[in-house]
């Protein structure tokens, strides 16, 4: 996988700061609708619809995790070590789903920030999310 | 045979009736060339593709983006038989253009992003699912005649 250039890191940090504070919970919720297979991880929720309180709360948790990864952008492998262990040993989420979530994050960015989400921002964010996914999968095997 | 719900048919027709081809087409191809730079290999004769600005201003990219987007019109009109509708196009991409079929998915993803940006909140999860299903069928059909 490619490493993030200084320009990528700068672009991601700047863009995330701009979108910070606005509602960013919707990407994980979109996933439940567009990729119904992801609902299999939430069979313990009584209400699996994307607008349920449980889903919205969890969407926020996930997106805050991504925001945290932005602060650890210089060493994602080390910074996300514990989260990786959580996903590997406790949650046991198939890493293919990281790609699905990344895609939905990009779609939400396009919907909410059509002028700011330029091709240059898109490529840096795509690379960043791929790097996060890799770091999260680090402890799996 | 692909089964389409009424909602999916209506959504696809609605999207394609509303997008401005001369904006969405160029934006989609340009985005693909920036986000997935290896796709530039197919456009050696297009001149300046050195950076995002150059790509965005490139007249050949714009023109070709519109051509590609109009290529989807036939699939929109023939949703019940996209596979056969695209048989010839598939042969063209395989035998004449030599395009790696993995690239179709990359372009489809860029189109999803551009359409999402145009529609804003109208691009709900249900609309996204319908659009992505349509594009998946298009992508699969375009890859069908590769041997």
TrEMBL record, chain A:
<dbReference type="GO" id="GO:0043177">
    <property type="term" value="F:organic acid binding"/>
</dbReference>
<keyword id="KW-0813">Transport</keyword>
<dbReference type="Pfam" id="PF00042">
    <property type="entry name" value="Globin"/>
</dbReference>
<protein>
    <recommendedName>
        <fullName>Hemoglobin subunit alpha-2</fullName>
    </recommendedName>
</protein>
<keyword id="KW-0349">Heme</keyword>
<dbReference type="GO" id="GO:0020037">
    <property type="term" value="F:heme binding"/>
</dbReference>
<keyword id="KW-0561">Oxygen transport</keyword>
<dbReference type="InterPro" id="IPR002338">
    <property type="entry name" value="Hemoglobin_a-typ"/>
</dbReference>
<dbReference type="GO" id="GO:0005344">
    <property type="term" value="F:oxygen carrier activity"/>
</dbReference>
<dbReference type="InterPro" id="IPR050056">
    <property type="entry name" value="Hemoglobin_oxygen_transport"/>
</dbReference>
<dbReference type="InterPro" id="IPR000971">
    <property type="entry name" value="Globin"/>
</dbReference>
<dbReference type="GO" id="GO:0005833">
    <property type="term" value="C:hemoglobin complex"/>
</dbReference>
<keyword id="KW-0007">Acetylation</keyword>
<comment type="function">
    <text>Involved in oxygen transport from gills to the various peripheral tissues.</text>
</comment>
<dbReference type="GO" id="GO:0031720">
    <property type="term" value="F:haptoglobin binding"/>
</dbReference>
<keyword id="KW-0479">Metal-binding</keyword>
<dbReference type="GO" id="GO:0019825">
    <property type="term" value="F:oxygen binding"/>
</dbReference>
<dbReference type="GO" id="GO:0042744">
    <property type="term" value="P:hydrogen peroxide catabolic process"/>
</dbReference>
<dbReference type="GO" id="GO:0072562">
    <property type="term" value="C:blood microparticle"/>
</dbReference>
<dbReference type="GO" id="GO:0031838">
    <property type="term" value="C:haptoglobin-hemoglobin complex"/>
</dbReference>
<dbReference type="GO" id="GO:0004601">
    <property type="term" value="F:peroxidase activity"/>
</dbReference>
<dbReference type="InterPro" id="IPR012292">
    <property type="entry name" value="Globin/Proto"/>
</dbReference>
UniProtKB/TrEMBL annotation, chain B:
<keyword id="KW-0349">Heme</keyword>
<dbReference type="GO" id="GO:0031720">
    <property type="term" value="F:haptoglobin binding"/>
</dbReference>
<comment type="function">
    <text>Involved in oxygen transport from gills to the various peripheral tissues.</text>
</comment>
<keyword id="KW-0561">Oxygen transport</keyword>
<dbReference type="GO" id="GO:0005833">
    <property type="term" value="C:hemoglobin complex"/>
</dbReference>
<dbReference type="GO" id="GO:0042744">
    <property type="term" value="P:hydrogen peroxide catabolic process"/>
</dbReference>
<keyword id="KW-0408">Iron</keyword>
<dbReference type="GO" id="GO:0020037">
    <property type="term" value="F:heme binding"/>
</dbReference>
<keyword id="KW-0813">Transport</keyword>
<feature type="domain" description="Globin">
    <location>
        <begin position="3"/>
        <end position="147"/>
    </location>
</feature>
<comment type="similarity">
    <text>Belongs to the globin family.</text>
</comment>
<dbReference type="GO" id="GO:0046872">
    <property type="term" value="F:metal ion binding"/>
</dbReference>
<protein>
    <submittedName>
        <fullName>Hemoglobin subunit beta-2</fullName>
    </submittedName>
</protein>
<keyword id="KW-0479">Metal-binding</keyword>
<dbReference type="Pfam" id="PF00042">
    <property type="entry name" value="Globin"/>
</dbReference>
<dbReference type="GO" id="GO:0019825">
    <property type="term" value="F:oxygen binding"/>
</dbReference>
<dbReference type="GO" id="GO:0072562">
    <property type="term" value="C:blood microparticle"/>
</dbReference>
<dbReference type="GO" id="GO:0004601">
    <property type="term" value="F:peroxidase activity"/>
</dbReference>
<dbReference type="InterPro" id="IPR012292">
    <property type="entry name" value="Globin/Proto"/>
</dbReference>
<dbReference type="GO" id="GO:0005344">
    <property type="term" value="F:oxygen carrier activity"/>
</dbReference>
<dbReference type="InterPro" id="IPR009050">
    <property type="entry name" value="Globin-like_sf"/>
</dbReference>
<dbReference type="InterPro" id="IPR000971">
    <property type="entry name" value="Globin"/>
</dbReference>
């Amino acid at each position: 996988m490619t490493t993030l250039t200084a320009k990528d890191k700068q672009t991601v940090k700047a863009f995330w700061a701009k979108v910070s504070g606005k509602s960013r919970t919707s990407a994980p919720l979109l996933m439940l609708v567009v990729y119904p297979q992801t609902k299999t991880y939430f069979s313990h929720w009584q209400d699996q619809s994307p607008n349920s309180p449980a889903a919205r709360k969890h969407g926020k948790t996930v997106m805050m995790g991504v925001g945290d990864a932005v602060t650890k952008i210089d060493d994602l492998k080390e910074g996300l070590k514990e989260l990786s262990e959580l996903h590997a040993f406790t949650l046991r989420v198939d890493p293919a789903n990281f790609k699905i979530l990344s895609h939905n994050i990009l779609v939400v960015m396009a919907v909410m920030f059509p002028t700011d989400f330029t091709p240059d921002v898109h490529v840096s964010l795509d690379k960043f999310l791929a790097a996060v996914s890799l770091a999260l999968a680090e402890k799996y095997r | 045979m692909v089964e389409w719900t009424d909602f999916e048919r209506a959504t696809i027709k609605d999207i394609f009736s509303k997008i401005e081809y001369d904006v969405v087409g160029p934006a989609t191809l340009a985005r693909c060339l920036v986000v997935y730079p290896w796709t530039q290999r197919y456009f050696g004769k297009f001149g300046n593709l050195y950076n995002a600005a150059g790509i965005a201003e490139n007249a050949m990219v714009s023109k070709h983006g519109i051509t590609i987007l109009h290529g989807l019109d036939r699939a929109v009109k023939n949703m019940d038989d996209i596979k056969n509708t695209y048989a010839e196009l598939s042969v063209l991409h395989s035998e004449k253009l030599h395009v790696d079929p993995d690239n179709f998915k990359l372009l489809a993803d860029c189109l999803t992003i551009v359409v999402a940006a145009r529609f804003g909140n109208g691009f709900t999860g249900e609309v996204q699912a319908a659009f992505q299903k349509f594009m998946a069928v298009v992508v699969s059909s375009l890859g069908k005649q590769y041997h």
